[in-house]
Write a structure and sequence with these properties.
The protein is built from 1 helix and 9 strands, in the order αβββββββββ. With about 140 residues, the protein is α+β, with helices and mostly antiparallel strands. The chain has a single domain, classed as minor pseudopilin epsh domain (minor pseudopilin epsh fold, 3-Layer(bab) Sandwich), CATH 3.55.40.10. The strands form 2 sheets. Strands 3-2-1-5-6 form a 5-stranded antiparallel sheet, with helices on one face.
């Protein structure tokens, strides 16, 4: 009975996390897609840097010494994207060639976005945030 109970609890927690993750990924994707407009409006490159193992992202407008820090926040609530009670983190980052760094999405004034795949979630539910057809989207 205890083994069966443990399996049920783990499955239930996974279901709860999965539902919460799906609900909140829409906000994450909307926020990340908004930087495409910032790049176009300011006519500058916008870089979103992800910090795996944390909930932190950093957004810069421009490049090099002239780069302006637009946002330095977490994906965890408040003015940020997710409710603070959720235990989701950036679990990893991978470029199409397999490289892990730099963990960035880069938005160009032309509207082009380049980047890899961000793994985001908890120990019970995981999703990918990726660029598809020049838009940020998510997938399980």
């Amino acid at each position: 009975m205890s083994i069966l109970s443990s399996i049920c609890i783990i499955g239930y927690q996974g279901s709860l996390d999965s539902t919460a993750l799906k609900t909140n990924l829409t906000g994450i994707v909307e926020s990340l897609n908004s930087y495409k407009r910032v790049a176009t409006d300011k006519n500058k490159i916008v870089t979103v840097e992800f910090f795996p193992g944390t909930i932190k992202i950093q957004v810069k407008v421009g490049t090099g010494a002239d780069a302006e820090l637009l946002e330095n926040k977490g994906l965890d609530g408040g003015t940020d994207i997710l409710n603070r009670s959720l235990k989701f983190i950036i679990r990893g980052y991978r470029w199409p060639d397999g490289a892990a760094t730099p963990a960035t999405f880069t938005y160009y004034p032309s509207g082009t976005i380049i980047g890899g795949v961000v793994r985001y979630g908890s120990g019970f539910a995981d999703a990918k945030i990726l660029i598809k057809n020049n838009h940020v989207t998510w997938d399980f």
